[in-house]
Every structure is written in C-alpha cells, then in structure tokens.
Specification:
- The protein has about 475 residues and is an alpha+beta fold.
- It has 14 helices and 19 strands.
- Helices cover about 30% and strands about 25% of the residues.
- Strands 12, 13, 14, 15, 16, 17, 18 and 19 form an eight-stranded antiparallel β-sheet that branches. Strands 5-6-10-8-9 form a five-stranded antiparallel β-sheet. Strands 1-2-4-3 form a four-stranded mixed β-sheet.
- Helix 1 runs antiparallel to helix 3, helix 11 runs antiparallel to helix 12 and helix 13 packs across helix 14.
- The chain is globular.
- It starts with 6 loop residues before the first helix and ends in a 15-residue tail after the last helix.
- Bound molecules: flavin-adenine dinucleotide.
Length: about 475
C-alpha cells in the first residue's frame, strides 16, 4: 500500500500519468504483480504500467520522492524475480511494443516491452534477424542489457554486439541517448551491465540475414549414454563452423506430441542444433552427429527459424517454480563430462531440463573489454535449472542443482553470465564481471545513479 503520507505524491503522479496505475485493491493487481517464475510472490505498493518515456520519468520521480524502491520490468523473466518487489513501485514497460524495421538501413528500433518472439516475427518476415535468446516469451530488454546469448550468436555475436544505440531515462530523470559516438561510456556499460545505469526505453539493433528456413532441432540418446555422447560431441564441435550452434540438454523426455509415448519420462540427453547457413551445408555438418551411437529420436530437420525458436517454450512456461545455478567452463574435459553425466542421472523432477550452451565463434571475436559483458572466452555455459510444478519437491530439486554446481566448482572458469544469476550477493556479481570491469562499472554507477535508486538488478553499488 502507498502510505497515507505519500498520497499527495500519488495524486500528483495520477494527474500526469497516461498509463494505468494498479494498487493492491484493484481487480487486476494479482495478475499484474505476477512474474514468469512461480516461486516469486511479491506485493508491490504500486504497479505503474507505462505507455512511454514521460510515464517512465514520472514513475521514477514518484519513487524518488516517496522513497519507495523501484523495480523495472521488461518481460518479467528475471530468474530471481528482480522485476517485482515487496512494498515498492514496479515500473512496468510491457506496453512499449514499438518495432520499426528499416530494411534499407538494416536496422530495427525496438521498444523496451517487446518479447523475443514478437521481434523475430517481424524480422523473419523479411528474412532478417536480431540474434537473441531461445524462448519466445523472454523480454528483449533484460536479455539485451545482460548480453544476450542464443542460436545465432556463434555466427553473428551476442545481442549486444548488434546494438547501435539506446535511449535511456537516468535515475535522475534525464532522457539520454548512448551509442559509440554519444555517451560512449554509458554505451559500454549498458552492453552487459544490466539495468544499473537507467531505464532503457528503446533499442536500435543491426539486422542480419537469416533463413527463414534453417536446419534445426534435437537429437536424443538415452541418458545412460551421456558420457560417451558428450565425448563424441566434444570432438565434433571442435571442427564445427560458426554457423553451427548447439545446446546439450539433460532431462526426462517431455510429454509432448512429437515425443513417442514410450520415450516420454525416460532420462535422455539431447543435442539441439541450429545451423544458421544453407540447409545442405548443415546436413553435411550434422551427418556425423546423427549417425553417432544409437539416437532414440532425431527431430533435426529443415524448418522455419520461427518454429525452432518456439521449441523450448513448452519446457519453460510461466508459473512453474524455477531455480538456477550457472557457471562457465573452459572445456568439456573428461572430469566435467563424468560429473555432468553422473549428476544428471539423479535429476528428480520430470520437468527439470538443464541446458549446456556451446559458446565461442563470433562471441569470442569481440574483445573481453570492448563491452561490459564478461565471459567471451568461455567454452560452455552451464544453466543448471531445477523446475517443479509447485512448491512440492522444489527444495529437493534445488539441492540437486546446487550439488551439481558445487561438484563442477574446481572446473569453473571464473566469470558467469549475469542474466543467469540468482540473488547471490555482491561478491558473486563482482566475480561474474572480474575486478577490473567491476571497478569501471562502479565508476559509471557513481556518474549515472550515485544514490543506487536502481538497485533491483544484479546490482553494482556506486562504492
Ligand atoms: C524462459 C527463459 C529463457 C531464457 N533464455 C535466455 C536466452 O536464450 N539467452 C539469454 O541471454 N538469456 C536468457 N534468459 C535469461 C534472460 O536474459 C533474463 O532472465 C532477462 O533478465 C530477461 O529479461 P526480461 O526483460 O524478461 O526480464 P525482467 O525480469 O523484466 O528484467 C530483468 C532485469 O532487467 C532489468 N530491466 C528490464 N528491462 C529493463 C529496461 N528497459 N531498462 C533497465 N533495466 C531493465 C530489470 O530491472 C531486472 O533487473 C532466459 C530466461 C528465461 C526465464
């Protein structure tokens, strides 16, 4: 609830605000406070559903004057639920849906409320793409500000590597632009530094040609073969071109229409591929993998990129309970493979699906210090994700995720992708960036948000 003492500030906000202001007594409150992770249940004092820049400025001013903590929400997919808070103000950007494609210039201007699938739909109509993530209902804003890894990154780079400029409202309420030539320090920071320096209202991206047909999809083996399959996989990807991007998933085979009934619920290891080049070339590159051992199901085939992009959607729906531990490793050594295979056999929940991302390619060709993103040299990123339908069994699955993460600890390569962190404290954020980058980010924070108003993020306090 907004306190009685803050009622006059609320009245003033209401006179200038064009969007909707949702309070606990309003009928839509429960729906509006909900985020993707069902394990997060927070009750903000106010949800300010912004329609544009002026609303964002007004909502931030209200938060500053009342002392209520602002939480900024793009797509609401933060694993630890950083885009909703107890007793604060949610600055909801979900209605900023502008998508403007300029095929001549090869650019897309995108509002902060756009979801990945919404952008892909528009760009793919023209055979173009902004490389982003692998689940269509993820918010583009939060994903981009952390870096953005996905199916096209090995060919074209991270999402931030396509970024040409941003428009941003600073904590002080100023509207500024940042690009290589304007506020270049800020532009460096927003490419990996998350929402620490202001609220981005719109992004301008470079577009890249793609498909629209790609060779893509999963090939499954029994999980008992995991160690053998991963040893083969390691050698196979060592020779692979940048067009190939793969994600290894350990899970019980899902109860989805394309999975034969007898396989559903069985522990499997899947290698999911996406070949961002000519299909025939992809067929040649994929041939050794699909003939390795005895796959139990092969769904890797030519398909529209949009269809492939939606493949993981049923595995990560809104409302389930999610927990995640992340780490990078330099390589899939024998030890890393054996630990992974052994712990995966102990996955308890039929919903847990745990991805290991192949990194490298164009991601690693940008210098580690050119943007705030850390971990360009990583070989693989582990997303050890625990998933249950509700609270029942969640703690046990969380322990499984923590157990695997700890067993891999001697092999962690240092950094971590900030968009995959939970609420793990300042030392972990510092470790994710490394000391040099963290200091540079802190000095930016002192310049753009000295009071740390925007602190519900992977926070970099001004120091
Ligand atoms: C199902 C799922 C799939 C995912 N897949 C991928 C993937 O393929 N690749 C990948 O890189 N990541 C992936 N992620 C991680 C994802 O990048 C982060 O969860 C990201 O924060 C989501 O962005 P959002 O806008 O939906 O989140 P939100 O929860 O709305 O925001 C996350 C953080 O960003 C801040 N923020 C959001 N918008 C703005 C803004 N406009 N200005 C300033 N700060 C802002 C918020 O304050 C918060 O701290 C995935 C996450 C989920 C849940």
């Amino acid at each position: 609830m907004v306190l009685a003492s803050d009622q006059s500030a609320l009245r003033e906000l209401a006179t200038s605000f064009r969007g909707e202001l949702v309070q606990p007594a309003d009928p839509s409150y429960d729906e509006q406070r909900r985020v993707w992770n069902g394990a997060i249940d927070r009750r903000p004092a106010l949800i300010a559903r912004c329609t544009g820049v002026a609303d964002i400025v007004a909502a931030l001013r209200f938060a500053r004057s009342t002392g209520l903590t602002p939480a900024v929400r793009g797509g609401g997919h933060s694993f630890p639920g950083l885009s909703v808070c107890d007793a604060g103000v949610v600055v909801d950007l979900g209605q900023l849906k502008e998508i403007e494609i300029d095929p001549e210039a090869g650019t897309a201007t995108v509002g902060a409320g756009v979801l990945l699938g919404e952008l892909d739909r528009e760009t793919q109509a023209l055979g173009l793409a902004v490389p982003a993530g692998i689940v269509t209902h993820t918010g583009l804003a939060g994903l981009t500000l952390g870096g953005g890894i996905g199916w096209l990154m090995r060919k074209y780079g991270l999402t931030i590597d396509q970024l040409l400029s941003v428009e941003l409202v600073t904590a002080g309420g100023d509207v500024v632009r940042a690009s290589e030539s304007e506020n270049a320090d800020l532009f460096w920071g927003v490419r990996g530094g998350g929402g620490n320096f202001g609220i981005v209202t719109r992004f301008e991206f470079r577009l890249n040609p793609l498909g629209p047909t790609v060779l893509a999809g999963p090939i499954f083996w029994p999980m008992t073969d995991s160690a053998k399959v991963l040893r083969f996989y390691r050698e196979w990807i060592a020779e692979a071109p940048d067009e190939l991007m793969t994600i290894v998933v350990h899970r019980r085979a899902p109860a989805l229409p394309f999975v034969p009934t007898e396989l559903q619920g069985e522990p499997v290891v899947a290698i999911v591929s996406c070949y961002a080049g000519p299909v025939e070339e992809g067929e040649r590159v994929l041939r050794p993998l699909r003939s390795h051992g005895r796959p139990v199901l092969d769904l890797c085939e030519p398909k529209p990129f949009l269809e492939h992009q939606a493949m993981f959607d049923p595995s990560f729906p809104h409302g389930r309970w999610y927990y995640m531990r992340t780490c990078d490793v330099a390589e899939l050594s024998d030890e890393v493979i054996d630990i992974t295979a052994e712990h995966s056999m102990r996955i308890g929940s039929p919903l847990t699906a745990f991805p290991i991302w192949q990194m490298g390619g164009a991601v690693a060709r940008v210098g580690e210090h050119e943007t705030a993103f850390s971990g360009r040299g990583a070989g693989h990123t582990f997303n050890i994700t625990a998933i249950t339908d509700s609270e029942a069994g969640f703690e046990e699955e969380r322990e499984w995720a923590c157990g695997l993460w700890s067993a891999l600890e001697p092999h962690h390569s240092g950094g971590a992708y900030v968009n995959f962190l939970m609420d793990e404290g300042e030392a972990r954020v510092r470790g994710a960036y490394g000391a040099d980058k963290y200091e540079r980010l802190q000095s930016l924070k002192r310049k753009y948000d000295p009071e740390n108003l925007l602190r519900l993020n992977q926070n970099i306090p001004p120091g």
